[in-house]
Amino acid sequence: MKVKQSKQSKITAVILAGGLGTRMLSDISDNPKALMPILEKPMIYYVISAVLKIKEDKRNKNKIDRIIVVIGHKGERVKDYILNENDKAFSESRIDFVVQKEYAGTADAARQVLPLLGPAGKDDGDILILPCDTPLITYQTLKGFAEFHSATFNDLSILSFKTKDPFSYGRLLKDDNGFVKAIVEEKELVNYSGTSIRSIKDVNAGIYLVKKDHFKELVGLIQPDNLKKEYYLTDLAGIFYQHGLKVKCYCFMEGQEELMGVNSWIELLTARQIMQKRFICKMAENGVNFVTADNIYIGASVKVHEGAVIYPGCFISGSSVIGKNAVIESGSVIRNSIIGEDSIIKSYSVLEDVFVENGASVGPFGRLRQGTVIKSGAKIGNFVEVKNSVIGENSKAQHLSYVGDSQVGKDVNIGAGVITCNYDGIKKHRTVIGDGCFIGSDSQLVAPVVIEKNSYVASGTTVTKNVPEGNLAISRAPQENKKGWVLKRLKKIKNKE
After folding, report:
1. The predicted structure's pLDDT at residue 250
2. 3-state DSSP of 340-374
3. pLDDT lower than 70: segments of the chain
4. Would you state the torsion angle of the CA atoms of residues 288, 292, 298, 301, taken in this order, to the nearest 10 degrees?
5. Which residues contact 90 (CB under 8 A, 6 or more apart)?
6. CA 479/CA 458 separation, integer angstroms
7. CA 293 from centroid of its chain's CA atoms
8. Cα dist from 457 to 381, 395, 472, whole Å
9. CB of 111 within 8 A of CB of 215?
């Protein structure tokens, strides 16, 4: 069986995403294994992204012409995610799906793609087979693997790595010429005498490049003659070797971290830590100033611009954007929010679905809720909560206030303890505060109400009706000082004793 070699290889990527993931309890979890999250993106996102970068690299001779995802357990959820992922590369690529109806092993999963490949003998392309649970794999590694496969004219190439502890990995058995003649899974080592195979340090990473026509003809020869009675894709190496085909491994020498499989909650945690470190290092290279790389969470979709300063203990997630030279102090929680240039989010502030414009300040211990806009130069101080409101340019609410469903103009001062009473028990109502207003401490603004520009509200006032421009609103009971009252009270107490 001869396959014509091509200088430019067309590669069909096959991603195996149909397993039960029993060690991760994905059979009883809401998420199938492929959708287990790493920094708010599922594992399979990183695998597909790495593959798509090969497609996007115009200098790369090895081209990904299509991706086939094998789904099974809760497969419709995996399919829905991929089809709706908000990533331009996903939407512009050809991604097909096939279903593995029975969970009979990796070879059974891989051969489900055969109907999509066409008849044997008419295709000189390659198939890249990789599992969904290797989220740390990078484009650079896959690119190097593809170049190795093409340059050595292998019929089957196996991505491998060396490890001091080969336990749980498939061992690569080689002949005297360095060709792989078999892959022996950990569970099958009981069938081999001696310790020589167990001590092999060159192990299988579970990622393969195989000539498409050879795969079509020979994958059907794999039999479930093993302890688990499953169809092992690793058996393809022995079958190819027995048919006189060229089987070699591409040993990744950078270490096993990138090629680790995620099969347990501990390994998922490890993968998250590694991926977080990658993100932080990449941002640091682009000019982001991290006080320390420890104890920081930054989601996969977060963008942090150069000059920003990130303190330890921050949690930044969702589609958040941190502008140039912004400062995010310790303990801040920022979700789906935009922080403008030169703004500062002081310690232990919580921001969700808000927009903080350039040069604004929030906190410490500030809380901004959905729909809030803090305009340039505005200051939101400690223990101030703002919900669904616009705070105008250079306005201030510095202490212990609640501003809800409000439109606040520019250059407004909101004193300590001010509350906008926006809810009447049935509906929410808006408060409008014009430019240049002064709202005295411990005032209540009962919505709906309008305080026109340049007006004052005296401290302790309850505002229940509109305040015209330039007016002072005051509602207080007259103060009365009773002469000698304290002394008389003390005498009464003493007489009772």
Report:
1. 93
2. CCCCEECCCCEEECCEECCCCEECCCCEECCCCEE
3. 1-8, 21-29, 120-123, 190-195, 254-255
4. 20
5. 48, 52, 82
6. 14
7. 17
8. 20, 15, 6
9. no
Predicted TM-score (pTM) of this structure = 0.88
Rounded CA separation 397/389 (Å): 13
Establish whether 399 is a catalytic residue.
Answer: yes
Round to whole Å and give the CA distance between 348 and 326.
16
- Specify the DSSP class assigned to residue 423: B
Q: Measure Cα distances from 454 to 419, 440, 460, 467 in Å.
A: 19, 13, 19, 10
Half-sphere exposure of 339 (CA within 13 A, CB side): 36
* Tokens (6 digits) for 34: 């492929």
Q: What CA–CA distance (Å, rounded) separates 416 from 122?
A: 78
How far is Cα 35 from Cα 232, in angstroms, rounded to an integer?
23
Do residues 293 and 278 lie in contact, with contact meaning Cβ atoms separated by under 8 Å? no
Residue 445 and residue 450: Cα distance in Å, rounded? Answer: 9
Residue 383 to residue 435: CA distance in whole angstroms: 23
Question: Which strand (E) or helix (H) includes residue 49?
Answer: helix 43-56
149, 214, 243, 399: which is the annotated catalytic residue?
399
* Adjacent-strand bridge partners of 203: 161, 171
* φ, ψ for residue 195, nearest 5 deg: -110, 0
**Among 114, 126, 118, 26, residue whose Cα is nearest residue 70:** 114
DSSP-derived pairing of the beta strands 297-298 and 321-322 = unpaired
Q: What pLDDT is attached to residue 240?
A: 96
Neighbours of 152 (CB within 10 A): 11
Sign of CA dihedral 190, 191, 195, 199: negative
Residue with tokens 């899974």: 185
Structural contact between residues 377 and 392, judged by C-beta atoms closer than 8 angstroms:
no
CA 262/CA 269 separation, integer angstroms: 9
pLDDT 10s digits, 55-100: 777 777 778 888 999 999 889 999 999 999 988 888 888 899 999 9
Give all domains of the chain, ordered by start, each with its CATH number: 10-252 (3.90.550.10), 275-473 (2.160.10.10)
The residue count for the chain: 497
Q: What is the pLDDT of residue 122?
A: 62
Contact between 61 and 5 (Cβ < 8 Å): no
Tokens of 11: 């590669």
Please give the radius of gyration of the chain, using alpha carbons only, rounded to the nearest integer: 32
Q: Which residues in 312-332 are b (16+ Cβ under 10 Å) and which e?
A: ebbbbbeebbbbbbbbbbbbb
- Give the DSSP per-residue string, 91-140: HTS-EEEEE--S---HHHHHGGGHHHH-STTS---EEEEEETT-TT--HH
